[in-house]
Amino acid sequence: MEVIAQKLDDILNSLQPLIVEWKDEISIRVIDRLKALSVKEAYTTDDVRSLLDEDFKDGILICRLFLGFSDDHFVSVLRGIRGKGRTGVTSYRADRAGFLEDLLSTGLLEAMAEEANRQPHWSNVLAERLRSGRGRAISGQRRGRVVEDFAEDIVQRVFGTGFQMRCSFTGSRGKAKCDFAIPSKSVARILIEAKGYGATGSKMTDILGDLQKIIAAKRSDSTLLFFTDGITWKQRESDLRNILELQNNGDIRRIYTFAMADQLEADLRQLKAEYKL
What we know:
This protein is α/β, with parallel strands linked by helices. The protein is about 55% helix and about 15% strand. The chain is built from twelve helices and five strands. It starts with 7 loop residues before the first helix and ends with a helix.
């Protein structure tokens, strides 16, 4: 084989888009089942039971499609209703009535009726592509922003304008990024990280590293608080346990959720007095 020195432009000019068929055996099977599904003004528990009894995995996928839920989000929602479990075929077979009750509490029957009776328009296909692509990314961003905005409202009530957001603060041992530095990034006596998640992923592990960087950089007498929420933590208990260990060790003063908003505000007011801010 002849030895030659290839050129970048030659490679770039030879590149082509990779167009592949997105349907696999499962997709084809599920589409066939959807086409065979009777159109009704209202669906019942028996309709959902039939979907799951015929083929549980395909049936659950069809339920997710009606709800517009990703797999992670669907599992998180179901587990959030009664805790761990109740998402797989074993749970369904063990307690069909209870499983179906949980499943229908998501608004599944209403979603089925709405989709089945929707008047088709060519834009629906494009809108769905937008939702599944860009829309999914935006949803993730907005979940995080909801938590951050909620925390900002509390911080603002307590400190007015005496704080900085999404900045790199300077501590006694270095610099690190944080969501809130109070009263400023150069004099960071109180630090707050605010993160929310609607689906599991590497970002839930990354926050541990972010918190550790803050701990490594901050003054020993500065206070670090962590505000978070989202039932997906129930699927990432090991990550949450590691964060809790930081709190137990005194590296994080306290961890808060939406349900603890009053406690967060009370603690910030106490810290404001202690630091004479």
